[in-house]
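TICKET: design request
STATUS: open
ATTACHED STRUCTURE:
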């Protein structure tokens, strides 16, 4: 009896396509793709969030100005804009070196935030 159980478990494992679904993998990428997650700046739903408040000196007006750094909303972008944002070199957003498939999965995951909440 144990032999049959082991046989069927091995058979099932050998022909299983994935251990996690594409949506689970996309969620993992969004939360922690390569050490820091998208959700830390763009929010848990891709709505964007405040990263930092700071002050700087404006040379023209010679005044100290309060300013803030915000991560943009990403759950309403078209695919090309999203991909360009992920791949472009920015001084604030880290480079993740994602594959095209990972970018596609992330995009589908982010776009479906609004659909999942309804």
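STATUS: resolved
RESOLUTION: sequence designed for all positions
ATTACHED SEQUENCE:
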């Amino acid at each position: 009896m144990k032999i049959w159980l082991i046989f069927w478990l091995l058979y099932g494992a050998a022909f299983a396509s994935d251990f996690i679904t594409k949506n689970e993998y996309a969620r993992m990428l969004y939360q922690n793709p390569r050490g820091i997650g998208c959700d830390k700046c763009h929010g848990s739903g891709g709505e964007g969030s405040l990263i930092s408040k700071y002050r700087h000196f404006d040379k023209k007006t010679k005044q100290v100005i309060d300013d803030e750094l915000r991560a943009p909303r990403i759950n309403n972008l078209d695919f090309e804009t999203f991909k360009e944002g992920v791949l472009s070199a920015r001084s604030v957003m880290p480079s993740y070196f994602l594959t095209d498939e990972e970018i596609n999965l992330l995009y589908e995951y982010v776009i479906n935030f609004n659909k999942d909440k309804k």
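CLOSING REMARK: The beta strands are 49-58, 63-71. Helices lie at 2-15, 22-31, 39-42, 79-87, 100-111, 113-117.
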